[in-house]
Amino acid sequence: MTDTPNEPASSPEPQAAASSTPSKPKKDPRKESIWEVYYPFNANEDKDAVPVASFPMIIYFWPSLVAFLTCGLIQMFGEAGVQSVTLGWWATAALAFNLMIIVTDLDQKKFIIVALLLVMGGLGLYIGRLKGWAVIGDVGHWIAGLQISYSTHAYLAIGLVLLFFFCIGITQPRLNYWRLEPNEFVHYIQPWGRDQSVPRLGSTVSREVPDVLELILTFGGGTLVIKREGQVVARIEHVPFLGKRMKSIERLLGVTRVRNT
Question: Spans of biased composition, class Low complexity (predicted)?
Fold first, then answer.
């Protein structure tokens, strides 16, 4: 005879209660808002579609817009008739920075090289000015002696012009956008409606970042590329917050391979 401990008889009531507990119903995908072309709200939640739009390049000029309007207001409420050279340098630097973004495309390697060249150039001018080197020292003294200033009216006029075109630019995505759905990718042009439809089957979506500075100014933006059977059928450029949007797109498309470049 073996001594085997007797297990207590289990009561059937708890089992019946456990088996009768209803499972939680699966939450329906959230209805997307067309205003998400500007910012991806609730990116971590399931959605029935993801709206995405290409923005004009004027969105990169928000540093110049802010700089000129801010400098104009500061100078307006400062000492009467005094034009600040410091404000002039800040506004000019912001405008030069934006023009550089329009002219150049800096990937990660080029961005690092340009940053190092700028640092080396600045150090060269500073050392040349201290040491009194002929050419470099003269250039450094000339740049340091520049008295850049704008009138208050010039600040506000340039700022308001940038604001006018900025407002026109940000209205375009509301009228011309893509709607990524589980079964198809649809291009809409308002007020006419559907313009193009790409079947979901056989299509892939990828993210490209051609310029580091554009990535920074659009808060993780980039270009969304739609390919079908290896051919590019759509390039949605200058999309702000694209890194955050990719979370919603990945959850929506499921098995679609998303490639960051």
Answer: 8-23
Contact 52, 177 (CB under 8 A): yes
Beta-strand pair 50-52/176-180: antiparallel
In sequence order, the 6+-apart residues with CB closer than 8 A to the CB of 29 are 45, 46, 47, 48
Tokens matching residue 145: 């002696």
pTM attached to this predicted model: 0.72
Tokens of 153: 């009216």
Share of the chain above pLDDT 70, in %: 75
Last residue of a domain, one of 106, 137, 171: 171
CA atoms within 13 A on the CB side of 166: 14
Nearest to 75 by CA among 156, 139, 1, 13: 156
Based on the fold, state whether residues 123 and 205 are members of the same structural domain.
no
Give the residue numbers spanning the domain of 141.
Answer: 59-171
Nearest Cα to 158, choosing from 93, 82, 64, 74?
A: 64
